[in-house]
Amino acid sequence: MDDDDHQEEAPEQVKLFGMWASPYVLKVRWALSIKGVEYEYVEEDLRNKSHDLLEHNHVHKKVPVLLYRGIPVAESDVIVEFVDEAWSHRGGRILPDDPHERAMARLWVRFVHDKELIAVGGKDFFAGESVELVDLSLGALAYVVPMYEEIIGVRLVTEERFPSLSAWMGRFLDSPPVKDHPPLVERLKPRYRAMREAFLNMG
To answer: At 15, which helix (H) or strand (E)?
Structure first.
Protein backbone atom coordinates (compact mmCIF):
# COMPACT_ATOMS: atom_id res chain seq x y z
CA MET A 1 0.00 0.00 0.00
CA ASP A 2 1.41 3.41 -0.90
CA ASP A 3 1.07 6.73 0.91
CA ASP A 4 -1.82 7.89 -1.29
CA ASP A 5 -3.86 4.87 -0.24
CA HIS A 6 -3.35 5.82 3.41
CA GLN A 7 -4.18 9.48 2.85
CA GLU A 8 -7.43 8.69 1.03
CA GLU A 9 -8.49 6.15 3.62
CA ALA A 10 -12.08 6.62 4.78
CA PRO A 11 -12.70 6.98 8.53
CA GLU A 12 -15.08 4.00 8.53
CA GLN A 13 -12.21 1.70 7.57
CA VAL A 14 -10.75 2.25 11.04
CA LYS A 15 -12.92 1.50 14.05
CA LEU A 16 -11.99 1.51 17.74
CA PHE A 17 -14.01 -0.36 20.35
CA GLY A 18 -13.45 1.21 23.73
CA MET A 19 -14.81 2.30 27.09
CA TRP A 20 -14.52 5.86 28.35
CA ALA A 21 -12.91 5.02 31.71
CA SER A 22 -10.22 2.68 30.38
CA PRO A 23 -6.66 4.06 30.43
CA TYR A 24 -5.73 1.43 27.83
CA VAL A 25 -8.32 2.80 25.43
CA LEU A 26 -7.08 6.34 26.05
CA LYS A 27 -3.55 5.20 25.23
CA VAL A 28 -4.72 3.97 21.83
CA ARG A 29 -6.72 7.14 21.19
CA TRP A 30 -3.63 9.21 21.97
CA ALA A 31 -1.58 7.12 19.53
CA LEU A 32 -4.17 7.59 16.78
CA SER A 33 -4.16 11.31 17.50
CA ILE A 34 -0.37 11.50 17.15
CA LYS A 35 -0.74 9.92 13.71
CA GLY A 36 -3.72 12.03 12.68
CA VAL A 37 -5.84 8.96 11.94
CA GLU A 38 -9.59 9.42 11.53
CA TYR A 39 -11.65 6.58 12.94
CA GLU A 40 -15.06 5.58 14.17
CA TYR A 41 -15.26 5.19 17.94
CA VAL A 42 -17.64 2.63 19.44
CA GLU A 43 -18.36 2.98 23.16
CA GLU A 44 -18.84 -0.43 24.80
CA ASP A 45 -20.89 -1.36 27.83
CA LEU A 46 -18.61 -3.93 29.45
CA ARG A 47 -21.50 -5.35 31.45
CA ASN A 48 -23.31 -6.08 28.21
CA LYS A 49 -20.62 -6.49 25.57
CA SER A 50 -21.65 -6.10 21.96
CA HIS A 51 -21.66 -8.95 19.49
CA ASP A 52 -19.06 -7.07 17.41
CA LEU A 53 -16.63 -6.81 20.33
CA LEU A 54 -16.99 -10.48 21.22
CA GLU A 55 -16.57 -11.43 17.58
CA HIS A 56 -13.41 -9.38 17.09
CA ASN A 57 -11.80 -10.25 20.44
CA HIS A 58 -13.30 -13.63 21.26
CA VAL A 59 -10.25 -14.72 23.30
CA HIS A 60 -9.92 -11.90 25.87
CA LYS A 61 -13.32 -10.25 25.26
CA LYS A 62 -12.12 -6.84 26.39
CA VAL A 63 -11.31 -3.37 25.07
CA PRO A 64 -9.54 -1.82 23.30
CA VAL A 65 -9.92 -3.48 19.93
CA LEU A 66 -8.91 -1.71 16.73
CA LEU A 67 -10.60 -2.81 13.53
CA TYR A 68 -8.53 -1.96 10.44
CA ARG A 69 -10.10 -2.83 7.10
CA GLY A 70 -12.07 -5.56 8.82
CA ILE A 71 -9.04 -7.07 10.57
CA PRO A 72 -9.03 -6.83 14.40
CA VAL A 73 -5.99 -5.88 16.48
CA ALA A 74 -6.24 -6.36 20.26
CA GLU A 75 -4.21 -5.41 23.36
CA SER A 76 -3.28 -1.76 23.80
CA ASP A 77 0.51 -2.07 23.46
CA VAL A 78 0.12 -4.17 20.32
CA ILE A 79 -2.37 -1.68 18.87
CA VAL A 80 -0.07 1.28 19.57
CA GLU A 81 2.81 -0.38 17.73
CA PHE A 82 0.48 -1.35 14.88
CA VAL A 83 -0.70 2.26 14.56
CA ASP A 84 2.89 3.48 14.44
CA GLU A 85 3.77 1.03 11.65
CA ALA A 86 0.55 1.24 9.64
CA TRP A 87 0.72 5.03 9.47
CA SER A 88 4.51 5.41 9.56
CA HIS A 89 4.35 8.27 7.04
CA ARG A 90 2.08 10.36 9.26
CA GLY A 91 2.66 12.46 12.36
CA GLY A 92 5.45 11.79 14.82
CA ARG A 93 7.08 8.45 15.42
CA ILE A 94 5.76 6.56 18.44
CA LEU A 95 8.65 4.11 18.41
CA PRO A 96 12.14 5.38 17.56
CA ASP A 97 13.51 4.67 14.08
CA ASP A 98 16.81 3.33 15.42
CA PRO A 99 16.52 -0.44 16.11
CA HIS A 100 18.47 -0.22 19.37
CA GLU A 101 16.41 2.70 20.65
CA ARG A 102 13.24 0.89 19.59
CA ALA A 103 14.28 -2.19 21.56
CA MET A 104 15.07 -0.02 24.59
CA ALA A 105 11.64 1.63 24.37
CA ARG A 106 9.96 -1.79 24.39
CA LEU A 107 12.14 -2.81 27.33
CA TRP A 108 11.12 0.31 29.24
CA VAL A 109 7.44 -0.41 28.60
CA ARG A 110 7.85 -3.93 29.96
CA PHE A 111 9.80 -2.61 32.93
CA VAL A 112 7.15 0.00 33.65
CA HIS A 113 4.39 -2.59 33.52
CA ASP A 114 6.34 -4.87 35.87
CA LYS A 115 7.78 -2.33 38.30
CA GLU A 116 5.66 0.82 37.88
CA LEU A 117 8.76 3.02 37.91
CA ILE A 118 9.70 6.10 35.90
CA ALA A 119 12.92 7.87 34.96
CA VAL A 120 12.68 10.68 32.44
CA GLY A 121 16.31 11.65 32.88
CA GLY A 122 16.08 15.38 32.19
CA LYS A 123 14.24 15.07 28.86
CA ASP A 124 10.80 16.47 28.10
CA PHE A 125 9.52 12.96 27.40
CA PHE A 126 11.06 9.50 27.62
CA ALA A 127 12.55 9.45 24.14
CA GLY A 128 13.21 13.16 23.82
CA GLU A 129 11.06 16.06 22.71
CA SER A 130 7.76 14.36 21.81
CA VAL A 131 5.30 11.80 23.17
CA GLU A 132 6.30 8.26 22.22
CA LEU A 133 5.66 4.66 23.29
CA VAL A 134 6.81 4.77 26.92
CA ASP A 135 4.95 8.03 27.57
CA LEU A 136 1.74 6.50 26.24
CA SER A 137 2.19 3.43 28.45
CA LEU A 138 2.59 5.65 31.52
CA GLY A 139 -0.09 8.13 30.50
CA ALA A 140 -2.68 7.07 33.07
CA LEU A 141 -0.23 7.98 35.84
CA ALA A 142 -0.39 11.64 34.81
CA TYR A 143 -4.08 12.03 35.60
CA VAL A 144 -4.80 9.21 38.09
CA VAL A 145 -2.21 10.40 40.64
CA PRO A 146 -3.52 14.00 40.92
CA MET A 147 -7.09 12.70 41.04
CA TYR A 148 -6.27 10.24 43.83
CA GLU A 149 -4.32 12.93 45.70
CA GLU A 150 -7.48 15.07 45.71
CA ILE A 151 -9.63 12.18 46.93
CA ILE A 152 -7.36 11.22 49.86
CA GLY A 153 -6.23 14.77 50.62
CA VAL A 154 -2.53 13.94 50.50
CA ARG A 155 0.11 15.04 47.97
CA LEU A 156 1.98 11.99 46.71
CA VAL A 157 4.02 13.51 43.87
CA THR A 158 5.50 16.92 44.63
CA GLU A 159 8.07 18.96 42.72
CA GLU A 160 10.36 18.76 45.72
CA ARG A 161 10.26 14.96 46.10
CA PHE A 162 9.86 13.94 42.44
CA PRO A 163 10.87 16.89 40.24
CA SER A 164 11.33 14.93 36.99
CA LEU A 165 8.12 12.91 37.40
CA SER A 166 6.10 15.98 38.39
CA ALA A 167 7.37 17.95 35.38
CA TRP A 168 6.72 15.03 33.01
CA MET A 169 3.14 14.67 34.25
CA GLY A 170 2.46 18.33 33.51
CA ARG A 171 4.01 18.19 30.05
CA PHE A 172 2.18 15.00 29.15
CA LEU A 173 -1.22 16.39 30.15
CA ASP A 174 -0.44 19.49 28.08
CA SER A 175 0.62 17.50 24.99
CA PRO A 176 -1.49 17.59 21.78
CA PRO A 177 -2.73 13.97 21.84
CA VAL A 178 -3.97 14.30 25.42
CA LYS A 179 -5.66 17.60 24.63
CA ASP A 180 -7.37 15.88 21.69
CA HIS A 181 -8.70 13.14 23.98
CA PRO A 182 -8.52 14.31 27.60
CA PRO A 183 -9.31 11.85 30.40
CA LEU A 184 -12.80 12.38 31.84
CA VAL A 185 -11.53 13.03 35.34
CA GLU A 186 -14.77 14.37 36.79
CA ARG A 187 -16.61 11.23 35.70
CA LEU A 188 -13.84 9.05 37.09
CA LYS A 189 -13.72 10.60 40.56
CA PRO A 190 -16.91 8.91 41.89
CA ARG A 191 -15.54 5.53 40.76
CA TYR A 192 -12.26 6.03 42.59
CA ARG A 193 -14.03 7.36 45.69
CA ALA A 194 -16.26 4.28 45.73
CA MET A 195 -13.24 1.99 45.28
CA ARG A 196 -11.47 3.69 48.17
CA GLU A 197 -14.54 3.45 50.43
CA ALA A 198 -14.94 -0.24 49.60
CA PHE A 199 -11.28 -0.84 50.41
CA LEU A 200 -11.51 1.04 53.73
CA ASN A 201 -14.65 -0.88 54.70
CA MET A 202 -12.92 -4.21 54.14
CA GLY A 203 -11.24 -3.81 57.50
So the answer is: strand 14-18
